Amino acid sequence: MRILRSRIAFSLAGFFVALLLIAAVDDTVQRMIRGHELLSGIYQRVISEYVEETSPDDLLRAGVKGMLDQLDPYAELIEEKENSEVDVLARGSYSGLGIKVGRRNGSAVVTYIYDEVRPLTNLRLGDVLLRIDSVDLRTTSVKDLRPLLRGLPGTTVDLLVRRPGIFDSLSLTVTRRQVSIDPLPFQEMLEGDIFYMKLTRFTRSAVDSIDLALKRAYAAGGVHGVIIDVRDNPGGLLESAVSLVDKFVSPGTPIVSMKGRQAAYVRSYFAKDDPIDADVPIVILVNERSASASEIVAGAMQDLDRAVILGRRTFGKGLVQTLIPLNYNAYLKLTTSRYFIPSGRCIQRLSYANGNVHSVTEDGAEEAVFRTARLARAVRESNGIVPDIVLAKDTVSPLIAYLLRHDAVFNFAASYINRKKPVRVPAIDGDMRGRFKSFVDSLSTAEGDALTDALKSLQDEARKQGMPTKGISRIQSLESEIAALRSARFDAEWKELKALLNEEFIFQLHGDAARLQASVASDSTIARARELLTDRQAWEEAMIIGHPQ
């Protein structure tokens, strides 16, 4: 009898739990229906009754944006005209002009031309876009330019541009074409049989590119170490990241898992194929702009004690976005789950709620500690990937920071190339030094700098306070001392300025691959990685020392 009563009580408890769940689901559904009716009603009333005529498309986009802004910065509506962004990830290509445009000093400037497009286009680096077809670009955001520049291969775009070093504006007709985005723009066997790979994006085509590069390297002879460079790599497709890790670990090894609210967004990924090399020492280079798929590679290899991570703490993006098809060939990009790497930790650094953002650990809670697979090293959650060897952030002098902030090296090289039309990288000699110094001086005159701005403020304030003319003259006499200081700084830093100019000329004349090749020899981080890979014991110790127990 007691057992029967227990069973009845248990059944009743289960029944009431089920009722509560049904009620909760029913309440959610009712609120969804109410919200849909309210939104639809407001939308219709505004369009039909607002005192000014309102664009239905603009109103819809504003409403969707307001809704998605409550979530996280990755949620967005991708409309049909923007589907080329989906193509970039899915196929590693898109149809357009083959350029990147940045907003600089209020102008839309061509900052990058893909290597395969360089010999085919009449655009040049540094070109300021003034008009696209009939659209004036003075108030157009860079994001809004994308649908204007992209389109079907073979179609044309009429551009009005202002070219550095050329006084008159130019009218150009540029043909759109299918542009492949090389996810592996540079690879090289370095001295000591160290194979170096620079990965810029984890697209679908990255899988084949990585596979081919590794097979060629191993077919050519012994590989004693591998450097995987994902600095400045914003990520891409999860599958491509998994495929890269798969090439260096044994079948069945856990790589990453996804956990979301819906069963469709819960999945675990394991190594499937026989590795190319499960023992070769590996160093992965990262920085604060390594994110998402890049962090999966670095984090998984760290958790498996399979690679030394070298550089600076990564961005900390452990959220998974899914492209959900909608009507009218549109997509909703929505965060549907989180990434968890083999130790069980999530690397997401920021928390988003109601349009607000804060660090996951900023409420004072301690970071959860996890352990790596082989060495049981302590690794922490919610902090991006902290490298085993953390490098200090590069520091630059005030002069070089000023020049980089004003794109002085880029603009000088573009102007020089447009006027002189060199076919090879010009000598960075005394003549070039004089030209660049004059350019820097003119920039300081036109834009000002910290010292000249402070001096002008002091002069203005002295006049307001009624300082005698003699005193103001003494203040003005500081201009010559500032000019002398500026000149002395230029002379003292000419060696570094010379290197920056040489690298910029290589890039603008010969493309990104040539610049990468030139920079490998002088990159101190790559040199550090090579040192580790030539000494297996030092490579092993780097993991342990980097994570004290």
Layout of strands and helices, then pairs:
Blueprint: H1 2-49, H2 56-68, E1 76-78, H3 84-91, E2 93-96, E3 99-104, E4 107-113, E5 128-132, E6 135-136, H4 142-149, E7 156-162, E8 170-175, E9 177-180, E10 186-190, E11 194-198, H5 206-219, E12 225-229, H6 238-246, E13 254-260, E14 267-270, E15 282-286, H7 293-303, E16 308-311, E17 319-325, E18 331-340, E19 350-353, E20 356-359, E21 369-371, E22 378-380, E23 389-390, H8 398-405, H9 408-420, H10 430-447, H11 450-464, H12 469-476, H13 478-492, H14 494-510, H15 512-520, H16 524-533, H17 536-546
Parallel strand pairs: 11-12, 12-15, 15-16, 16-23
Antiparallel strand pairs: 1-18, 2-9, 3-4, 4-5, 5-6, 5-7, 7-8, 10-11, 13-14, 13-18, 17-18, 19-20, 21-22
Helix pairs in contact: 5-6, 6-7, 9-14, 11-12, 14-15
Overall 3D geometry?
globular
Calculate the mean pLDDT score and round it: 86
Q: Approximately how much beta-strand content do the residues carry?
A: 15-25%
CATH superfamily grouping of the largest domain: 2-enoyl-CoA Hydratase, Chain A, domain 1
CATH architecture annotation name of the largest domain: Alpha-Beta Complex
Structural domains: how many: 4
According to CATH, the fold-level topology of the largest domain is 2-enoyl-CoA Hydratase, Chain A, domain 1
Query: For this structure, what is the CATH class of the largest domain?
Result: Alpha Beta
| Radius of gyration (Å) | 29 Å
Unreliable stretches (pLDDT < 50, length at least 5) are: 1-21
Q: Please tally the helical runs, counting DSSP H or I stretches of 4 or more residues.
A: 17
SSE-based structural type: alpha+beta
